[in-house]
Amino acid sequence: MRQLLNFLFILLPSILVHLSAQNYALAIHGGAGFLNRSDISEYQVQVYRESLSSVLAIGDSMLNAGSSALDVVETVIRLMENDSIYNAGKGSVLNKHGMVECDASFMDGRNLEAGAVTGVAHIKNPITAARLVMEKSPHVMLAGKGAEEFALLHNVPFVPNKYFITARKHQAYVKKLGNRKHGTVGAVALDISGNIAAGTSTGGMNGKAFGRIGDSPIIGAGTYANNNTCGVSCTGHGEYYIRNVVAHDVSAMLAYTSKDLQEVTAEIIHEKLNSRAGAGGLIAVDKAGNISMEFNTTSMFRASSKNGKVYVAIFADE
Ligand code: ASP
């Protein structure tokens, strides 16, 4: 009798609340790379974890309160662009000429609308400019000075190029540390209305050629979102991600095969790509709210939340 009463008055209400709760999911990344625990101090690990946790918490509470996937993706990517520990916005890596050129893209899974900017050197938050290209222009991608002129017309805040350059990224450039320091940022959200959005923002690869464009601003390569399948944001050696059309491939494999999100992302990241040919990773959220964060490097700054259940990690064994 007591057990029955317990069930009726204590367990049943919480089960009902849980069942009626709306489904939402959020995944973010701060780049894949070849970090090992011995390369980074406990303090730095803490700095990254705290940043990922606080960005995730903001996005999670927005989704919980009913914000759109589009607003959440833009907000969390802006936060990471403003944080110089990542390679996006402030803190971006330098190209061969010692300057920063940023790339970003944004996609709306409801209608497959998309926007991107590439090679922009003065837009404080490239992800916002990418969203504006989607919402306020008839185009998908704007480059360099044209993208900046468009952003200026829409009152997007501008900064001098040196705003992006931090002492650490300058040192990496001078020491030619190569491509091992990643830090691209991205986000994928499924909101309580069942809409998916995805975005990616980056300074690209350290020491890249002037004018080089990676996968991050390319719809289908670095970013993709389709309410019928999933949303994806990639990070890694962009040339491979472009050639393998990675973000769209995740969506296409979900659409055309009976494999689930985890099987599809594992196949792409570990079989089609690998740590030599296509080092990197991706985050993906499918239409049911399943989350996958797969990578073939030793680390990927990442965090996710599904209906409030939080996960934050850096290294492969977490
Ligand atoms: N995918 C980016 C690029 O190739 C870099 C990265 O994600 O680390 O520009």
Description:
It is a single chain. The chain is α+β, with helices and mostly antiparallel strands and 318 residues long. It contains nine helices and twelve strands. Strands 4-3-2-6-5-1-11-12 form an eight-stranded mixed sheet. A four-stranded antiparallel sheet has the order 7-8-9-10. Helix 2 packs antiparallel against helix 3 and helix 3 runs antiparallel to helix 4 (126-136). It binds aspartic acid (ASP). The site of aspartic acid has 12 residues, from strand 8. Residues 31, 182, 184, 202, 204-205, 214-216, 235-236, 238 line the site of aspartic acid.
Bound molecules: aspartic acid
Spans with pLDDT under 50 lasting ≥5 residues?
15-20
Q: Taking strands numbered 1, 2, ... along the chain, how are they ordered across the largest sheet?
A: 4-3-2-6-5-1-11-12
CATH superfamily: (Glycosyl)asparaginase
Summarize the main sheet.
Answer: 8 strands, mixed
Distance between the termini: 44 Å
